[in-house]
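Intended use. Records like the one below are meant for learning the mapping from a protein sequence to its folded structure. Do not use them to infer anything beyond what is encoded.
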Amino acid sequence: MKNLVYLFMAIAFAACKPYDTLIKNGTVYDGSGKPAIPTDIGIKGDKVVKIGNIPSKKAKTIVDAEGMAVSPGFINTLSWAYWPLLKDGRSMSNLKQGVTLEIFGEGSSPGPFHPEKTKDTPSSFAENMEKLEQQGVSTNIASFVGATTVRKYVLDEDDRAPNAEELALMKQLVEQSMEEGALGLGTSLIYPPAFFAKTDELIALSKSASKHNGIYISHLRSEGDKLLEAIEELITIAREANIPAEIYHLKAAGQRNWEDLEKAIAMIEKARAEGLEITTNMYNYTGASTGLGACMPPWIQEGGEIQWVKNLQNAELKAKAISEMESDKTDWENFLALAGDPANILLLGFSTDSLQKFKGKNLAEVAKIWGKSPAESVCDLISANGGDISTAYFLMSEENVARQMKLPYMSFGSDARSIAAEGENLESMTHPRTYGNFARLLGKYVREEKIISLEEAIHKLSWLPVQKLHIKNRGRITEGYFADIVIFDPTTITDKATFNQPHQYAEGVQHVFVNGTRVIKNGEHTGETPGRFVKGKGAKN
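Structure written out for the chain above:
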């Protein structure tokens, strides 16, 4: 009887505690960009409910953040994590850096898919996002609706403009996805079939997103030789569709274009001064990463990957493609030319076992082994692989990377997956930004090089992107907001991943909370999956 009384007393005592978790003794950066303050944070359920001096006896769980920075969880404004998270919802490589929201949709998105063209996959945007939430994911998730996904729904991989009926269907698909929670319309205009879309098509789709309070976000049609023209196209779309617009991973690619960055910034700021909401994001490396197909003309890739490989096996088409690839002036973004030297093109991952011996080699090395030109080697590598090959391109300057970080409208995205450093992931290489983009900002560029302050960096990782994306009740440490919180050591946080040894977790993050649940404890994953589908402003429910 006495034990039962004690049990009831313990339950009653616990019930009287107003906080589930109390974070004490930390230095709190609230995300606003203001100087940090030493204070406590009380969490109840999934929300921050109290900021101030809170007695320890009022909380069920105490987290001592002595000597640590306490900030809002970080927003990954460009993530390719959707499909990896379906396999492993832990989001290890990003969660260990403090990322609490992954945003998808650079051209391709988790729906809408044509029901007759997909198997074992829901057709609508919302169903696919909800599938990941229900399956279990440790970070929150959000997405743009991809213009490429919509185009493929209606036009497959064809290089043509939609007719009036087809365009009406594409607009309907965008509006439906916006009502289901998409943040806006995302494009990736250097890649086929996105490359085939003309500006008027993009304006029409952007108007549909604008009707539902979305934004337009774009991998520009060029980041190199025609960067300024590509920015002008984005500004035109923003103006004509009356929609805010963001540039994915702003850069001036190729040494011959580095000086154009200042001209690009001037164009953006002129448009902003005229009242257009033009903003940017970036990753924190001089090396880019995409497929080896970025060295090839889009026309040879028309029809999808299978047709692409068939085209490369046609001697006449292959010769025509090589001729264009070796030209210094093309109407498409030629990464072979932008790289300047084939040694600046690093091969990261293959689908075919016979090519694994080239993993980690650069294109110049492979061309020498084969006794072929770099352009022909690109064609033969893709043909032998049965499709595209993961590749890193060293195209940018450190000076420009640092210059971009200082822009007041700049936020950050990894442009990468979120994966665990284990199992089959170790069989191929990856860009180190997969494991280090956010820690690299806080370690290399904030602490070591002092490019921007810690307050500013945290602002650009949290509250700034939330404002741009019109997301409610996240991105700040303030009472009533969701408890997405990262606790890290600003004196030790660092990226460990390199291009030669990419599968290394960042260090320095001690605790991460997502919707009030601790998913990283003392640097280790707790196994919890409290992530939610975060919807855009135009969502109907």
